[in-house]
Amino acid sequence: VTHALEWPSLTVQWLPDRVEHPDKDYSTQKMILGTHTSEHEQNYLMIAEVQLPLENAEVDGREYDDESGEAGGFGSGGAKVKVCQHINHDGEVNRARYMPQNPFVLATKTVSADVY
């Protein structure tokens, strides 16, 4: 699974919860990412939702996607990665992690020693 972002991310972490959809051939899981922009652009802590194929998902290798130039693949059609939340961040996000006891609590670290 690949996805082009507007700005590079120096940190990525999967969130622990995964949802399997009974009528779909994929599961959905969230991840946290942080931006590393130029000096004059706003940085963000982002939460993205990712569709991951199930182990038993059938993939049709005969399908060709003109737009991506790829044959076969999972989930031809819709986006596999969707950024669903942008949180303004003061400075680049060098590290972002969730709290294991409560994944709704996130901490970030910038190029300085500041932790948010």
Automatic annotation (TrEMBL):
Protein name, per record: Histone-binding protein RBBP4-like N-terminal domain-containing protein
Claim: DNA-binding is one of the keywords in the record: no
Organism the protein comes from: Ostreococcus mediterraneus
Organism phylogeny: Eukaryota, Viridiplantae, Chlorophyta, Mamiellophyceae, Mamiellales
InterPro entries: Histone-bd_RBBP4-like_N, WD40/YVTN_repeat-like_dom_sf, WD_repeat_RBAP46/RBAP48/MSI1
Keyword Ubl conjugation: no
Domain Histone-binding protein RBBP4-like N-terminal: 2-53
Domain of life: Eukaryota
Gene3D superfamilies in the cross-refs: YVTN repeat-like/Quinoprotein amine dehydrogenase (2.130.10.10)
Keywords: Repeat, WD repeat
